[in-house]
Amino acid sequence: MSELYTKEFLFRLVIPLWVISFTTLSSIIFGLHSYRDGHEMARELAIFYAAVHRPAWALSLGWIVYACSTGQGGVINSLFTFKAFIPLERLCYLAYMLHVPLMYYQGGVQRERMFMGHYNQIMCFFSYTFMSFVLAFVCYLLFQVPFAAVEGLIFNKNHGNIWGANPMTVSQATLKNNDEEQVSIDEESKFSAKSKVLVSRIEETERF
């Protein structure tokens, strides 16, 4: 019954939401392509796009995050949790912050016009991406690692933090909660076993 419910839930809700999410994201990105050649968009359509595209983008990304965190991500979740992306994950925010100044600097030092064809756009994309992550790695070594070391000295688990409590990581807290739950389950099972023995003895006494 549960398997049928899961399959029914999958086909009736999860898959349509994935289709709607990808369709919305693709429409927001590529929907304006035909208007980049000088064609004027209708006023009603322009108002609708300006009012809806940001909330729709946020909701679509929110569904992807929710689906991946609840085990409904499938191949997308496997791609996002690929271990090779872990080093890049630590640099993504720095690369995001640095790529705009890098583009401004490139525009400032450029002394001649450049035709932005598809090939040039692809080359600019890869060059900006590569240089952004290189600069992010340098900033990570210069700023984030030293500050993390200072934070480790201040909140050292051996000496406790300023409130007198030892810090605990998420994994340690999870293990502690699992241990506490296991202890409570063991106690309940022991109590249940003792109750069964007591009930059986009472029944034997009543028979005699």
Automatic annotation (TrEMBL):
Keywords: Membrane, Transmembrane, Transmembrane helix
Membrane-spanning segments: 13-33, 45-66, 86-105, 125-143
Keyword Cytoplasm carried by entry: no
Record keyword Aminoacyl-tRNA synthetase present: no
Name by which UniProt lists this protein: Nose resistant to fluoxetine protein 6
Annotated organism of origin: Trichonephila inaurata madagascariensis
Gene this chain is encoded by: nrf-6_59
